[in-house]
Amino acid sequence: MRLTFRNFSLDFSRKTHVMGILNVTPDSFSDGGLFLSRDSAIERALRMEDEGADIIDVGGESTRPGSEPVPLEDELKRTIPVIEALAGRLSIPISIDTYKSEVATRAVEAGASMVNDISGLRFDPEMAPLLSRYDVALILMHIRGTPRNMQDNPVYSDLMTEISDYLREGIRLAAESGIAEERIVIDPGIGFGKTAEHNLRIINNLDALSALGRPVLVGVSRKSFIGRVLNNAPVSERLEGTAAAVAVSVMKGANIVRVHDVKEMVRVVKIVDAVRRERI
Fold first, then answer.
1. Domain ranges for the chain
2. Closest CA relative to residue 173, chosen from 118, 121, 97, 104
3. Of 44-48, 103-107, 146-150, which range is least confident?
4. Which stretches of the chain are assigned E, i.e. beta strand?
5. What global pTM score does this model have?
6. Could you tell me the pLDDT band of residue 253, with boundaries at 50, 70 and 90?
7. Which CATH superfamily is domain 2-274 in?
8. What is the CA radius of gyration of the chain?
9. Cβ–Cβ under 8 Å, residues 48 and 35
10. Dihedral sign, Cα of residue 237, residue 241, residue 245, residue 248
11. Is 194 part of the annotated catalytic residue set?
């Protein structure tokens, strides 16, 4: 399977791809405030590319459980200068993590070539029509509710079927606006309106999403369910748990893993890919 957009072509038959997280926010659950300045963000992105990242995902609004929406202008001020600076320096795709069409458009014009929409095109009706004008990749994620309330007792009658149906509908919405299915990636939304048990079930049944025929992205890095499994380990002590969750996700069919610890997870993915293919 291959994803072709703008000047990039990602070949998932060759390897699993690693997306490095670059949060230019003061309040993200894991690294809020660390890369808020433009210079520190640029330095971090360049380091992640050196460590083997295949994509850099830039986000200017925390979507951790309970978070409040960030004003449009604040999100633009945080992300656009960083993307403009990186566009001429990175040789890998830049993704913008946003559900706002205005931010997505400005980011794409600044040099981003992927849009990572946590709402799967549901929060902003202008997102799909605007993106249809550009030859960019689109990541559709499943979410139940909004970041503010998504963890308020999420309940499913059939977890994987409901996730699949939501993502299938997102693909349909994209197609209606003229976005080719060949440019779409799907994400089951680990931690977005799910309990810890839901997250474990998604990972264990990730191969069920293969029926949608699109590359699958999984974001498990440092998330709370890992802390729960590891006797309430804090965020700073979830590296090994993240590595295990990434490894299982790849074995179950993930094509892209979204991570904070790029160097370590690139190594994990290389080993899993070698095992799956039975060759070095």
1. 2-274
2. 121
3. 146-150
4. 2-5, 8-11, 17-23, 55-59, 94-97, 114-117, 137-141, 184-187, 217-218, 256-259
5. 0.95
6. very high
7. Dihydropteroate synthase-like (3.20.20.20)
8. 17
9. no
10. positive
11. no
**Backbone phi, then psi, for 96, in 5-degree steps?**
-105, 125
Q: Point out which residues pair with 115 in neighbouring strands.
A: 96, 138
Residue of 222, 223, 238, 252 with catalytic role: 223
In this prediction, residue 36 has a pLDDT band, given cuts at 50, 70 and 90, of: low
Angle at 56 between CA 202 and CA 166, to 5 degrees: 35
Report the Cα 182 to chain-centroid distance in Å: 18
Q: Is 277 an annotated catalytic residue?
A: no
What mean pLDDT is predicted for residues 164-186? 97
Give mean pLDDT, residues 204-229: 97
Neighbour-count burial of 97, counting CB atoms closer than 10 A to its CB (0-12 exposed, 13-18 middle, 19+ buried): buried
Structure tokens at 88: 């001429």
The active-site residue, picked from 258, 267, 270, 276, is 258
